[in-house]
Design a protein that fits this description.
The protein has 14 helices and twelve strands. By secondary structure, the protein is α/β, with parallel strands linked by helices. A six-stranded parallel sheet has the order 2-1-3-4-5-11. A six-stranded mixed sheet has the order 7-6-8-9-10-12, sandwiched between helices.
Amino acid sequence: MRMKSRITLKELAKLLNVSVSTVSKALNDSPEISPKTIERVKELAALHKYRPNPTAVNLKSSKSGTIGVIIPNIANSFFAKVLSGMEEKAQKEGLQVITYISNEYIEKERHISELLTSGYVDGVLIAIAEETQRKKEFEHIENIIDFDIPVVLYDRIGFEMPVDKVGIDDHRVFYEATKDLQNKGVNKIGIATSIHHMGVGKSRINGYKEALRKNDTFYIANSAKMESLTEKTLKMLLEDKVEAVLCSDFDSTMLTYRLAYEHGLRIPEDLKIIGFIRGGLAKYLTPSVSYVDQSPHKIGEKAMEVLINRINKKDATPKTKYIIETNVVHLESTRFD
């Protein structure tokens, strides 16, 4: 016989059409909640035999010393370096990190969010999954916030949420890269991207578009499917004959580089490339590829620092967006003779 699962704070809140925070405060007789609401909440809690999570109750008075980190894609070396920065900062503060991987899926992210509201962590660092962004369904993240658990968004920060955010200025990076190429006499500039549907991808495209002069043409190869991206990028290289390509992510960078090689385009003489690619790899390609240095370790350190300050209530300022400085590292693929 299956045991009936206990009702949760979230489920009580949904039945009462109030926030999770309101239910929690009512059950603890908070003066912030009206007597009438407290009575309603307690009656429904008694009816459903609600019992508070003992771990969560304990953590009301003492911290767990644990930070929850949600990573969207562990195969991406960028996030591995971000995590390294987070763990280094946490270790200095005597905190431990529990890492969860969403694999860019919303259901996985929802499940992780449920775990994190059970009282096992003092705060949460999250880069929002690709599928969550595409579906624009953020309720599970808002639920963490409703539990009064400090949350910091990192890297993927273009969302209207009452939380701190730490990342780079994706718009400015491609705006300045485009302007720099134009100032050096490059006229036909294209962009290749497999993340055009994501917040960071959109920001990079918008920066590129804003930088172009009034009469310039946009050359954009965009698709999350490699076959389609290959076709569009080839058209841009062979038919449109662009002189430079800004690549907004690792896949588009490596694809553009390979297609240029396969079709006899010389880098940098015929085609200049700036990509989002790990510096360690970029330097060892022949010719080496100019890349955007995102400072992932710094992003991780700063995100953890901001979260710790919120947890310890050292920072009472309004929620803030922190921008980590970036720059284009020019290697052989943007060399001008």
